[in-house]
Amino acid sequence: MKYMKLGSKPDAFQSDGRNIRFFVSELPADVFVHVDEVRFHLHKFPLLSKSRRLLGLMTQACDNNKDEIFLHDFPGGSKAFEVCAKFCYGMVVTLSAHNVAAARCAAEYLEMTEDVDKGNLIYKIEVFLNTSILQSWKDSIIALQTTKLLLPWSEELNLVERCIKCIASKTSTDPSNVSWSYTCNRKWTASDSLVEIEQGTHEIPPDWWIEDICELDVELYKRVMIAVKSKGRMSSKIIGEALKFYTFRWLPDSYDALVADDYMRKNRILVETIISLLPSDKCGGSLCRFLLKLLKVVILVGGNGPMKEELIDRISMQLHKASVKDLLVPAKSDGNTIYDVNLVQCLVSKSLMQVNTENDISFDKSDNAFVEIASRNKVLLALGRLVDGYLAEIAHDPNLYISSFIDIAKSVPEEARPSHDGLYTAIDIYLKDHPDLTKEEKKMICALMDVKKFSSEASIHAAQNEQLPLRIVVQVLFFEHLKISGVMPTTTDDISMCQATMDGDCEGRIVDHHNILKHQMENLSIKADEYQNGEGKKIVKTRSTRIFDKLWIDKGQRETGKKSETSRSSQSTPTFVKRGEDKTTGSSRNTKHSIS
């Protein structure tokens, strides 16, 4: 920090402890100056020789036979006046970034100009400001922060604008040319304290400046950031990082502190300021997560509608870069659910509109059409994973209506879900945490799933899931059998016939591969646990195993007339047949089972 000493005489000011400051001298005081609540006992000659204003006030007081002067609304208060008084007496005065702005405003108030006395206080302070304070990164920030208590004087003297201009100029300096100290407490630095940087000895990050300006008042910070952005040399990513750092520096961590009456207005002003400073273009996933946190604050502190809508529009442009945790926005106090599911549904809807709009534009630019389509598919896949993960989180909420769950699940298109494993996980959680669902409600929510898009792991889990309707379990087992047989349906007719197989009487429609299926299901491990005893293996049957016993049971006595046809079928690829046309052999049981 830069310092400047004025005068040479020792400090002779003392206090009697009763808000009285006096100059120790053999001569009695002949003028009494009141500043705020402090009364100064001084002498006329030193003061009148430096200050035109005191000269005029003293003349008026003498005309009225008075020896007291009252200085109202004095910039900087009694401390700033004492600096000026000591200068008049020729005492040692130390100026620094902490008091130079106040001293400059006080000197202007007292009219301590060059035409009153050569080398007066205003001139000396201006020299110090221009050659030291405004040339220093740290000092210019400290001086700027002090100007907020000196309004309107600091504005009229252009102190605020000069400090802002200096700060903005230094932020745009090439990092390789930064030779002054700056604060770096973030993870990318090896030190968490003030570091004196020597040029060429350390690679300085382009956002080296963002921590120091975080100490500024929100209004001053806004003006500095506007100046930084106006230079056009700072990337949107760095601007976003600076805003994020400032927000986390000043927003309270706890919910109670955030919504407390004493701080709610302050917090609202803060988020409004940050939103107004946001860069207009996309700035990456980290900014998306930051915007979602801002949205949470806006909702909690009761931000205005336009501010909330602007955030929603910005978030929707890059929602696919968010995480599930970012979407867990608390619902309003009058809501039934834990999280604001309507807000998330709105974000997803706007995001898909944005994706579709960009896709339409891409076809107008044929050269980049394939790149745009690939990018769109990537965004859709990310949105699908995000929505499924969000559903898995909110599924624990006992107050979440099934209609809300279904609406959010349907908010993304089918092409966003090449796999339904994530959706199955969410539905499984919802079924377990909502045991009172009716049979129809279970069918409704399970209808969201396409078992053909299950992985082997999901199929194994679903086949043993007691929460799922029996019909879904049958579908899982059936299509898993088709997968391992290498006969998955590809045409529309095949898929329709497979679906028809699931309707009504399943037993009479499934092809005769009893022995093959038994062997394949053992390999899938969807039978229950096996254990070894002295005589061999004993199989403990689960519900899925019992279903297979019913679905794949032989019907030898009923179908012996078709044995040769069945034999040929078992050696060839399984085909899809109509109800009543399939014939099986091997078992004497002729009982017909229907699974619904």
TrEMBL record:
<feature type="compositionally biased region" description="Basic and acidic residues">
    <location>
        <begin position="557"/>
        <end position="566"/>
    </location>
</feature>
<dbReference type="Pfam" id="PF00651">
    <property type="entry name" value="BTB"/>
</dbReference>
<feature type="domain" description="NPH3">
    <location>
        <begin position="207"/>
        <end position="483"/>
    </location>
</feature>
<keyword id="KW-0833">Ubl conjugation pathway</keyword>
<comment type="pathway">
    <text>Protein modification; protein ubiquitination.</text>
</comment>
<dbReference type="Pfam" id="PF03000">
    <property type="entry name" value="NPH3"/>
</dbReference>
<dbReference type="GO" id="GO:0016567">
    <property type="term" value="P:protein ubiquitination"/>
</dbReference>
<dbReference type="InterPro" id="IPR027356">
    <property type="entry name" value="NPH3_dom"/>
</dbReference>
<dbReference type="InterPro" id="IPR043454">
    <property type="entry name" value="NPH3/RPT2-like"/>
</dbReference>
<dbReference type="InterPro" id="IPR000210">
    <property type="entry name" value="BTB/POZ_dom"/>
</dbReference>
<feature type="region of interest" description="Disordered">
    <location>
        <begin position="557"/>
        <end position="596"/>
    </location>
</feature>
<protein>
    <recommendedName>
        <fullName>NPH3 domain-containing protein</fullName>
    </recommendedName>
</protein>
<comment type="similarity">
    <text>Belongs to the NPH3 family.</text>
</comment>
